[in-house]
Amino acid sequence: MSRFTERLQRADKVVDRTFAEDVPVVLMVGAERRPITAIFEKPDASVEVHGGGEIRDVAPALSAYTADIQGLAKRHAVTVGTEHYWVTHIGADEMGRTRITLAVGEPGKPVEDITQWSR
Predict the structure, then answer these.
(1) What is the full DSSP assignment across 42-70?
(2) Which of 13, 27, 85, 98 is deepest in the core (most CB within 10 A)?
């Protein structure tokens, strides 16, 4: 590993400590309770579209090290502090980090994946 890569990884860890949640982020991977360091995003505002309309993206998400989330799958439980969520989507590995989209609440009855557009 080059010195540059090592320094970049150290800088990433400083960024994580700065932006990561002050409350514990815990993944339930099968029966394993796994605390991780993650950056939590919870959008709280709509985006207006020029010409009328708005986009409401209120899906919370985590940004975590890909190595820390091995085995995580859709519908697994996630706790951020005292708030409960469940995994709806796991993004691609982007240089060692992965974005995880969440839904609010406890994982319950599985919901079918959307495979076509509604008419």
Answers:
(1) -----EEPTTS-EE-----EEEEEGGGGT
(2) 85
Tokens representing 94 are 């982007």
Would you say residue 30 has pLDDT above 60?
yes
What three-state secondary structure class fits 83? strand
CA distance 48 to 56: 9
Q: Looking at this protein, which amino acid is placed at residue 28?
A: M
Rounded distance between C-alpha atoms, residue 9 and residue 11, angstroms: 5
Q: Of 7, 33, 37, 12, whose CA–CA distance to 22 is shortest?
A: 37
Of residues 118 and 22, more confidently modeled: 22
Tens of pLDDT, residue by residue over 44-87, are: 666 667 777 766 666 899 999 999 999 999 999 999 999 999 99
The label of the residue with tokens 């400590």 reads: 17
CB 42 within 8 A of CB 23: no
Residue with tokens 């989330």: 69
Angstrom distance (rounded) from CA 3 to CA 119: 55
How far, in Å, CA of 35 to CA of 78, rounded?
10
